[in-house]
Amino acid sequence: xxxxxLNKFESGNARVGVIGLGYVGLPLAVEMAQKGFEVYGIDVxxxxxxxxxxxxxxxxxxxxxxxxxIIGKNFFPGDDFSVLSKLDAVSICVPTPLAKTKExxxxxxxxxxxxxxxxxxxGTLVVLESTTYPGTTDELxxxxxxxxxxxxxGEDFFLCFxxxxxxxxxxQFNTKNTPKVLGGATKPCLELGVALYSSFLENIVPVxxxxxxxxxxxxxxxxRSVNIGLVNELTMMCDRMGINAWExxxxxxxxxxxxxxxYPGPGIGGHCIPLxxxxxxxxxxxxNFYNRFIELASDVNGNMPRYALNQAxxxxxxxxxxxxxxxxxxxxxxxxxxxxxxRESPALExxxxxxxxxxxxxxxxxxxxxxxxxxxxxxxVELNDQNxxxxxxxxxxxxxxxxxxxxxISRSKLIxxxxxxxxxxxxxxxxxTLLGGQQNFDLPTNVEENSSVNPK
Length: 456
Ligand SMILES: NC(=O)c1ccc[n+]([C@@H]2O[C@H](COP(=O)([O-])OP(=O)(O)OC[C@H]3O[C@@H](n4cnc5c(N)ncnc54)[C@H](O)[C@@H]3O)[C@@H](O)[C@H]2O)c1
Hints:
Elements: H1 2-11, E1 15-19, H2 25-35, E2 38-42, H3 46-53, H4 64-70, E3 75-78, E4 89-92, H5 107-119, E5 125-128, H6 136-148, E6 158-161, E7 180-184, H7 187-198, E8 204-207, H8 210-241, H9 245-252, H10 276-285, H11 292-318, E9 327-331, H12 346-356, E10 360-364, E11 370-373, E12 376-379, H13 385-390, E13 393-396, H14 405-411, E14 415-417, E15 432-434, H15 445-449
Parallel strand pairs: 1-2, 1-4, 2-3, 4-5, 5-6, 7-8, 9-10, 9-13, 13-14, 14-15
Antiparallel strand pairs: 6-7, 11-12
Helix pairs in contact: 1-7, 5-6, 8-10, 8-11, 11-12
Bound molecules: nicotinamide-adenine-dinucleotide (NAD).
Residues 19-25, 42-45, 48, 93-96, 108, 111-112, 130-131, 164-166, 168, 271-272 line the site of nicotinamide-adenine-dinucleotide.
């Protein structure tokens, strides 16, 4: 069985599936189809399946042309789980959010496992890609399949965990060229996982267990969360001390070893950094282990939107205004620049906090045309004279590179810049307030020319 699967994977003649065709699953399915596999996508969102069937994409990193080239030829998306019975391999890319209580919500994985038990046939390779706590593949997939079927992992079916590292919007690293960590439940599982993934991805990093692979992903994202927490704390300290945190970070980044820069902001967002560390600390508590770094970083990062709210209030106060009744124009609603992802975006929280305090809030985002605020749909407004003139305060919450910041600066009355996009603006009138300290005087020209500090 193993040999036959190996042959199919290496020759590109396998039938493979991807469950959950979102930011992670769709690019994976496209890579597999481009390799020549017959790919079946399964997703509960009929809306998304309709878009794909028309040869269109809803994920920014995948173009309509890429979908058009494979749809109906060797890529078959749909919502029918019974196709599982004819697959040689299936990758699971469903969401792993947090419940309101901040505990892992693994219900999406459980729902998929239920379907696997129902439809999977002998000899299938199952690869979990969703980010989750160490032990999930073993406890929620292996144990359940072995309990509810006669299949044994490594003998009758094969099981791996391979964390997805995709960074939406990253022009340099994508699904294909980002090294892929992969751990198997048994040696044959790992061998098959590596055979499949190395047939269409550039670099596989095998590890000795599914738990190691699960922990790798959580280490990576905890590392980011903790370091962002550190610079956010440094930033608040710099605010108090009147030191420009951004300049400090850029200058520190010239050290060629032992330092890598992280940047502050009005909070963290996306489906990964705010959530994944909580998966780890939740699991660790079962071992009576308390992750103080994780909790502290989450506390500092989670409070940044409120810190931004307070700074916005101070700016208005200094100009004899209150938040209540002021018109506040938020620039950028996505959680980071040049993407359309709103999940956990700090700009959303700032929007709601300002609204709760009685401000009239409106926003512009070139990538996000609308969002749901409770029952109400809020639409992006134009970035034009009228909307800038109306604003008592413009809050730059996301630094999309397509926005004309010179125009924003010249037209606005007051600006609160949480992303340092105004770094080259000479602010003689106190128009701009920067998160992370004040803008200092310019370096003399001859010094600037010799500067080795790279701009962000
Ligand atoms: N977005 C990222 O940048 C990123 C990066 C690395 C890892 N991850 C991880 O990958 C996983 C998926 O994240 P995503 O960003 O692709 O999420 P997503 O919300 O974009 O996509 C998930 C898809 O799964 C579908 N789905 C939900 N329940 C399903 C079910 N029972 N059966 C079939 N389909 C179902 C949804 O309709 C959706 O299309 C998560 O665990 C996430 O933490 C995400």
